[in-house]
Amino acid sequence: MSSSSSSMKSDTTVDRRAQIQTLLNEQGVVNSQELAERFEVSLMTIYRDLDYLQEQGVAKRQHGGAVSADRFISPLKRSMRESQNVNAKRIIGRWAAANLINTIDDSLVIDSGTTTLEFVRALPDAAINVMVNSLDALSVLAAHKNTNVYALGGELRKDVMAFEGAITTDNLRQCHFSKAFISADGIDIEAGLTTTNEQRARLTRLMAEHAQEVYLLADCSKYGKRSFRTFFHFDRITAIISESGVPELYKQHFRQHDIRLIEVNDNDPDKK
């Protein structure tokens, strides 16, 4: 929700709370100060509104605002993930490939995920080292003539078509990278970066530990959501790349904690 949103004076408390609930359903997160400005009421009034919505099981209060109580992410079928927010994922992947890659001497490790797959599709065919654990990513990179392509190997999770497990992590521990490109199922101020699977959490965390720089590629639907397992918090991230429209509550949190956020859009001149 932008701070430039027009005022929406409500005639009754019930009406205002209904509108706040609608915003929570649409955005997943609301900012207290923005709500006060939007409805032209005091912060204390908004706090009471959010407390009420929390009592009703609609919202969960957190610093600076509230998030939707219905924000817990359960595992989705692969086909469902692939069909969600496709354009935003493509914009993010293309921007990252065009602006974050050193085509002379980079060594990359790339997490499995639908946004990171768009990043793989946009990678230049350059003489760099690229390690992936996704069969879809391997299929894309097989067409490269110059890229040195490596697969982590291990146990194949057929629901996501990616390698995970003890063999995968053992192989990863022997490698070192200039950059890791990772994804998350949920981004939450309190929970950090989360995913639906314990093995996936361990693997993504290990990728970050073995890379000099770590880039999170995540579309705006991930904000205000949390899943089963936290794999780490924001302080391990070099930068977060999202499309325009990151909730203001998260922008404020990132600014306060010196977390670099890059918002890109379809009109970006550097888009590939």
From TrEMBL:
Which GO molecular-function terms appear in the entry? DNA-binding transcription factor activity; transferase activity
Keywords linked to the UniProt accession: Transcription, Transcription regulation, Transferase
Q: Which residues form the HTH deoR-type domain?
A: 13-68
Q: Which domain of life is it from?
A: Bacteria
Q: Which SUPFAM superfamilies match?
A: NagB/RpiA/CoA transferase-like, Winged helix' DNA-binding domain
For this protein, the record's Gene3D superfamilies field holds: 3.40.50.1360, Winged helix-like DNA-binding domain superfamily/Winged helix DNA-binding domain
Recorded hits in Pfam families, A to Z, give: DeoRC, HTH_DeoR
- The protein depicted here goes by the name Lactose phosphotransferase system repressor
Print the organism lineage: Bacteria, Pseudomonadati, Pseudomonadota, Gammaproteobacteria, Cardiobacteriales
Encoded by which gene?
Answer: lacR
